[in-house]
Design goal:
The chain is an alpha/beta fold. It has two domains: about 1-105 and about 140-180, Rossmann fold, CATH 3.40.50.450; about 105-140, no CATH class. The protein is built from six helices and seven strands, in the order βαβαβαβαββαβα. Strands 2-1-3-4-7 form a five-stranded parallel β-sheet, with helices on both faces. The radius of gyration is 17 Å and the shape is globular. This is Nucleoside 2-deoxyribosyltransferase. InterPro entries: 2'-dNMP_N-hydrolase, Nucleoside_deoxyribTrfase. Pfam families: Nuc_deoxyrib_tr.
Length: about 190
């Protein structure tokens, strides 16, 4: 099984080391990990660097059997936008998708903390931002389309509260996803 390793890990200062670590975990469980920065044979040609990266990642996803996404909040209360795109892409291809996040705090609470004093509670108890826009509150880890897409694909979202200094390096949730995926979704969270 080839697993696309989605996530903002490509932005880490030690992204290459993270790729090696995640691929080793996949190999230990009988799978092949494909990191976004790996060279893609069927990527196609493009004059712009960003487009070459996009085409390479799309080629990787099409060549993979499943996806495991790092959904740890990135530069805000929600998961990395590129990772969420990749998750939706694989869902549309009908492939299994799993996710992990190194925070267990629900989306609404993270959003309220992010907004700070700009958040306003209405008389009915709902919350809005400074523009009066309603805050999503389904008790989920992230936006309902992220959690829902994973569940609809038969996957799992594994969340763990990890100390801030290990937020980007702790791979226990990642490994739990790989184990669950390789065992057909049977591993405990």
């Amino acid at each position: 099984m080839r697993i696309y390793l989605a996530g903002p890990d490509v932005f880490l200062p030690d992204a290459a080391a993270m790729a090696v670590a995640k691929k080793a975990i996949c190999e230990r469980h009988g799978a092949t990990g494909v990191f976004p920065t790996d060279l893609a044979a069927d990527a196609g040609e493009a004059p712009d660097r960003f487009m070459r990266i996009y085409l390479g990642n799309e080629a990787h996803m099409r060549a993979c059997d499943a996806l495991v996404a790092n959904l740890t909040p990135f530069r805000g209360p929600s998961a990395d936008a590129g990772t969420v795109y990749e998750l939706g892409f694989m869902r549309a291809l009908g492939r299994p998708i799993y996710g992990y996040a190194n925070t267990a705090e629900p989306f609404r609470e993270r959003t309220l903390a992010f907004l700070g004093p700009a958040a306003r509670q209405r008389a009915d108890g709902d919350w809005t931002d400074a523009e009066g826009l309603h805050l999503e509150d389904f008790g989920l880890h992230d936006n309902l389309m992220i959690d829902g897409g994973i569940l609809a694909a038969g996957g799992r979202l594994i969340t763990r509260q990890v100390p801030a200094e290990r937020r980007w390096s702790d791979l226990e949730g990642f490994e739990a996803c790989v184990v669950a995926l390789c065992q057909g979704g049977r591993a405990a969270s």
